[in-house]
Amino acid sequence: MSEIPENLKYAESHEWLRIEEDETATVGISDYAQQSLGDIVFVELPEIGQQFTATDQVSVVESVKAASDILSPATGEVIAINDSLVDTPEIINTSPYQDGWLFKLKLTGDINSDLLTAKQYAEIIAEED
Fold first, then answer.
1. pTM for the complete prediction?
2. Range of the structural domain that residue 29 is part of
3. What DSSP letter does each residue of the chain carry, written as one string?
4. Residues of the chain whose pLDDT is less than 70?
5. Is residue 4 one of the residues assigned to a domain?
């Protein structure tokens, strides 16, 4: 069973979004996504300062099984990336919601209105299994 924290919003494409107290957003991939991908071996991260619209392709996560495009769940500017993933991408496998986050956005526009609650996301992934 995948871990699905209640305090996050989820995209059907398996990214999660956490709005921080300073109105920035942290983005990563869900526990279900990392389990589906298997052992993660490479992460391509965006550059700080890049601007993205909700649902734009931002980065790529590669595993021994497949490569997966990471879509932005919100409109914003990249203000931080998780540099530790460059040398140790497998952190995503062990800590997808804490240490394995991908990037942070300064929100400058819309948040994808199709984002799901934890309960809705759990229903979606139950259908995929």
1. 0.95
2. 9-118
3. -----TT-EE-TTSEEEEE-TTSEEEEEE-HHHHHHH-SEEEEEPPPTT-EE-TT-EEEEEEESS-EEEEE-SEEEEEEEE-THHHH-TTHHHH-TTTTT--EEEEEEEEEPTT-B-HHHHHHHHHHH-
4. 1
5. no
